[in-house]
Amino acid sequence: MAHHWTEQDDMAALYVYRFGVEGTPYSINSMAERLGIGHKSFKMRLRNYRAIEGKGGLENYARQSQAIYERHCNTPAHLLCDLAFPDLKK
Asked: Of 25, 35, 54, 79, which is least packed with CB atoms within 10 Å of its CB?
């Protein structure tokens, strides 16, 4: 069954694309599992952000990913982390 990507999922992928898993208690695989996404699918979403930036990656990416990127491409790490992983807020 295919995963329906939420904006929250996309923000998590954008955070990992921009900043890695630093600042989270997750690896890429455990993060994907936590979100209910296969790790290969999650890694493909990371490549979507490369394509959105014009750095290669997959040619076809979701409009939602584009919108999340445009909204948060300049959001500082600590703020994007809070948005992407609200359960980690202290």
From this structure: 54
